[in-house]
Write the structure tokens for this entry.
Amino acid sequence: MSAGFVSPTEVGVEPAASVIRAAIGGADPSERHTMQINVTGKHLEITEAIDAYVRKKSERLVRYFDQVQSINCVIEKEPNAYHVEFIVDVAHHEDFIVNYRDADLYAAIDLAIDREARQIIDHKNQVRNHKHHR
């Protein structure tokens, strides 16, 4: 070793690659796409079962587009139905918003996620194919 030179590992500095991996969620690919999922209820208590169901269904959106940053789900109990709203924050684009009403809560969640997936897939195809028609 030359005089005056100290290796970054000797002083406890991590290599840049490991710092970057830590910033994006870890070295393991399954940990990379960590995103915030918020589930809130209006006139309805969000049970663990509802929360788990929304999280499980929402995680599939990352499979379609990896730049999903956060997902907010608002479930509102109406007199004869449930109103489900998903707001998905995607990098470099305005939020995608989907609303769906159904008498069955789980059906409303499923159909809202299907609509959200369609919006995200269309956006991904537009970005990938550079289709900018005016």
Notes: The mean pLDDT is 79. The domain at 34-129 is CATH 3.30.160.100 (Double Stranded RNA Binding Domain).
